[in-house]
Amino acid sequence: MSDQPRQTAILQCSFCNRECEHEVHYAGRILAHAKCSACGTVMQQSPNVLRKAYIKDLEHRAATKPLRLVRRILSDPGYLFTGLPKAIRRQPKKFVEEAKELRDPNKHPDA
Amino acid sequence: MKKPRQHTGRTAVVLAAGSGTRLGAGANKVWLPLGGRELATWSFQWLAQTELFDRFVIVVHPNEREDARAILKRHVTVDVDIVDGGKSRHDSETRALEYLAPSIESGDCRLVLIHDGARPLAAPALVRRIVDAAEECGGSLPYLDTAHITGAQPEQRLVRVQTPQVFAAEPLLDAYRRAARDGFEGSDTSMCMEQYRPDIAVKVVKGSAQNLKVTYPQDLVMAEHILAAQSFSLK
Fold this sequence. Notes:
- The complex is a heterodimer.
- By secondary structure, chain A is of the alpha+beta class.
- Chain A is 43% helix and 23% strand.
- Chain A has helices at residues 47-75, 83-101; strands at residues 6-12, 19-27, 30-36, 42-44.
- In chain B, helix 2 links the parallel strand 4 (55-60) and strand 5 (81-84).
- In chain B, helix 6 (169-182) packs across helix 7.
């Protein structure tokens, strides 16, 4: 679930105050913006703040990856042969998707 | 099978059935990503870290049972029992307590903590304070004062009640069984206890502003910042 850059969930909109479906976009582990399905209001982080947070988080992800990978393999040894090769193949596309989410949604409404 | 835990007689229940999926309108916010893993899994991280509990239960929407199992297997270091939720928060609590009823009635489970899965930042120190208070009195819950917002005098002030809330297991089960007979629905655990077991003293413990409930999209951003600022490790 958490690998998907776009997710939907019921949240309360701070503009129209309705509890309704929101499309939530992530750049890696960082929430980039969320759009209310009822009124269309987009809650977003400032692009500069988002980029800085993304880079800092990317550094943290890179630094902790070996340990996370070892934990994952210890808890599920089959992952080394089944999940890991697929995950490696997915990486280029994943980083392109993450980069797209760093764009300002007002300038790129399709993002 | 994960790490076996020492017997403590305390069970932690995390409510994650959500209202959104009950309406059939969309995904449950407790499964949204937060800091690289699903929001609800953080609660187990902090609860397990306290080493106060020997049993963990999550209440989920029946449709999310299999997803929940896979997520918990990947991110949670303790064994978690999965219970199907009901139509409301109160109903979900009742189902969790009925699931625990055999161990409560046998005396194996003395104390039950009930926590909202949408509050991912209930730090171990807060959990310890609440459990200590409940061990002393029979019940305990965290609160936040609103006097600084409303400007009210101390005698008129309102407080915001948070979770986790902890109660002696047997009176808690009794209160929910009586509530079921009467068709009573409380908005949180303490309301049902107040209604049916006012004999159980409840000690209020100062909560934490950090223990936010994810309601608005910006709450997710706030939670991300809090986690990142503390290197994803709350004390």
